[in-house]
Design brief:
By secondary structure, the protein is of the alpha/beta class. It has a single domain, classed as Rossmann fold, CATH 3.40.50.150. 40% of the residues lie in helices and 14% in strands. It is built from 10 helices and 8 strands. Strands 1, 2, 3, 4, 5, 6, 7 and 8 form an 8-stranded mixed β-sheet that branches. The longest helix is centred in the N-terminal third of the chain and has 21 residues. It is globular and about 45 Å long.
Length: 272
């Protein structure tokens, strides 16, 4: 993709987008020069501290697939993926519909590029829909007639928020958002999250990454501690193995995890 191509309305190709940067980390092509330049700077910083953000993004994606597949295998048939990002391999609907062809998958995002590409990809799939919505306005999201047409909130729902909550900088705001969404879910539902994690040390490098993301759309980025990330799922019962580095998270697993080099932490919480 280049700035010479037709750019969807509402897009400034000169401003990096977190969705397009993430697409670049995953090896995708739906990104602009500004996205690649910003992403390469983050990649360089990650190498300085002994990590590779591209591998971390792929591990996060694999965690999402394992969690979604597990929930489909447990009988969940309704999935809402908020902040879905650009379509890539092993999207939620592909994982879920292999396990449960009768499932419904709703993708929600507010990035115009994501909406254009996802809708084009899924236009002929009757079990999926792509909706425009903002995580920061859960009331509007839950009231969307298109969401209500697909999701029966009297039956268990899997709510997915992977690699999106770090773009909400205020802990109280996250508690409000997740609390509102959790409160809409019936017993037997599950919430899947992943969140960037600072590991140990590297304060200068983390500040550099924070500064780079502050110049993107949506313009904020927040690292959180294990306790802060765990608190996002307050009010739920964590399924084994609990909160873990995404590369180590396995359904029903356990273990004494090394968090020192972790880049993303993930967990699945059951709503009772």
């Amino acid at each position: 993709m280049s700035t010479e191509e037709q750019v969807p309305a509402g897009i400034d190709p000169n401003v990096p987008s977190v969705a397009r940067m993430y697409d670049y980390y995953l090896g995708g092509k739906d990104n602009y020069v500004s996205d690649r330049e910003a992403a390469e700077k983050v990649i360089a910083i990650s190498r300085e501290v002994g990590n590779d953000v591209r591998l971390a993004a792929r591990a996060n994606r694999a965690f999402l697939g394992r969690a979604a597949g597990m929930l489909a295998g447990m009988g969940v048939r309704q999935f809402i993926d908020i902040g879905t990002g650009l379509p890539t391999q092993e999207n939620v609907h592909q994982v879920v519909l292999r396990e449960a062809p009768d499932a419904q998958v709703v993708y929600v995002d507010n990035d115009p590029i994501v909406l254009v590409h996802a809708r084009a990809l899924l236009a002929d799939n009757p079990r999926t829909v792509v909706l425009e919505g903002d995580l920061r306005d859960p009331d509007a999201l839950l009231a969307d007639p298109a969401l209500r047409a697909r999701i029966d909130f009297d039956r268990p729902v899997a709510l997915i928020m992977c690699a999106i909550l770090q773009f909400v900088s205020d802990d109280e705001e996250i508690a409000r958002i997740v609390g509102r969404l959790r409160g809409s879910l019936p017993s037997g539902s599950h919430i899947v999250i992943s969140h960037v994690f600072p590991g140990e040390g590297h304060d200068d490098e983390l500040a550099e990454v924070d500064g780079l993301y502050s110049r993107t759309s949506p313009g904020n980025f927040t690292f959180r501690s294990r306790a802060q990330i765990r608190s996002i799922l307050d009010g739920t019962e964590l399924l084994p193995p609990g909160l873990a580095p995404v590369e180590d998270w396995q359904p029903g697993g356990d273990g004494d995890f090394d968090f020192s080099r972790a880049t993303y932490l993930g967990a699945v919480g059951r709503v009772s």
